[in-house]
């Protein structure tokens, strides 16, 4: 592969979602990028434990490109910290739990399901078809994993400062994870699920930022 071509990159989904959130054809055109599902839950209760599991399963090491949406970006940030990954791609995500809307902490404390206010917050800008896809992903998700991660987000120590260069894209109207004040490419009309609502922008971002 030439140095001008894309490096292989691993992109993780959001909590309660899977690789189907990257089903738009714009993502399929990124041949060097793998859009992964979450691994089967084996009792991992922290962001750090999930990161270790994925890094081991995928044999990720120094120089890898890792990223993800929402929870997936946080896990990717932890993978980067643990493995010395070469680049981190954050898609509506954060380097520290302080960026998460504190109102969601109440729901996380007793999370036995995806709470309705959270569902409303993340799905408000989706089309009817995209909302159906999101609900289908939630139905396929492992409730034990969702419960564990809803709590783990607020217990995570974060990855700020980051351990490698970071490329960041975020929706200006995201009410779940607040957009950073600097350093990110901002989508003015984007909410939390920009990977689904703005696939052209996000796919272009992934393709560009995963290049060597």
Descriptive key words:
212 residues, alpha/beta, Rossmann fold, six-stranded parallel sheet, 6 strands, disordered N terminus
Notes on the protein architecture:
The chain is an alpha/beta fold. The protein has a single domain, classed as Rossmann fold, CATH 3.40.50.1820. Helices cover 40% and strands 12% of the residues. It is built from 9 helices and 6 strands. Strands 2-1-3-4-5-6 form a 6-stranded parallel β-sheet, sandwiched between helices. Helix 4 crosses helix 7. The longest helix is centred in the middle third of the chain and has 13 residues. The N terminus is likely disordered.
Compile the SSE list and pairings:
Elements: E1 9-12, H1 25-28, E2 33-35, H2 47-57, E3 65-69, H3 71-83, E4 87-91, H4 103-109, H5 116-123, H6 128-140, H7 143-155, E5 166-171, E6 185-187, H8 194-197, H9 199-209
Parallel strand pairs: 1-2, 1-3, 3-4, 4-5, 5-6
Helix pairs in contact: 2-3, 4-7
SSE-based structural type: alpha/beta
CATH topology: Rossmann fold
The secondary-structure element order is: EHEHEHEHHHHEEHH
What is the top-level CATH class? Alpha Beta
Largest sheet: 6 strands, parallel
Uncertain stretches of 5 or more adjacent residues: 1-6
**Tally of DSSP β-strands:** 6
At CATH level 2, the architecture is 3-Layer(aba) Sandwich
Determine the mean pLDDT: 88
Please identify which CATH superfamily we are dealing with. Answer: Alpha/Beta hydrolase fold, catalytic domain
**Continuous helix count:** 9
Spatial separation of the terminal alpha carbons: 10 Å
The amount of beta strand, in percent, is 5-15%
Computed CA radius of gyration, to the nearest angstrom: 16 Å
């Amino acid at each position: 592969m030439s140095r001008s071509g894309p490096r292989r990159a691993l992109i993780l989904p959001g909590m309660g979602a899977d690789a189907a959130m990257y089903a738009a054809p714009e993502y399929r055109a990124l041949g060097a990028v793998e859009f992964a599902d979450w691994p089967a839950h084996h009792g991992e209760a922290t962001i750090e434990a999930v990161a270790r599991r994925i890094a081991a399963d995928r044999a990720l090491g120094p120089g890898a490109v890792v990223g993800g949406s929402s929870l997936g970006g946080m896990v990717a940030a932890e993978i980067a910290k643990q493995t010395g990954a070469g680049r981190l791609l954050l898609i509506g995500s954060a380097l520290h739990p302080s960026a998460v809307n504190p109102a969601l902490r109440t729901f996380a404390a007793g999370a036995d399901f995806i709470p309705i206010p959270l569902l409303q917050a993340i799905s408000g800008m989706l089309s009817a078809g995209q909302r159906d896809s999101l609900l289908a992903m939630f139905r396929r998700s492992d409730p034990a994993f969702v419960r564990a991660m809803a709590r783990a987000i607020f217990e995570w120590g974060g990855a700020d400062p980051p351990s490698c260069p970071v490329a960041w894209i975020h929706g200006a109207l995201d009410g779940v994870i607040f957009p950073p004040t600097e350093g990110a490419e901002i989508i003015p009309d984007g909410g939390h699920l920009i990977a689904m609502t703005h696939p052209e922008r996000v796919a272009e971002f992934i393709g560009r930022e995963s290049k060597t």
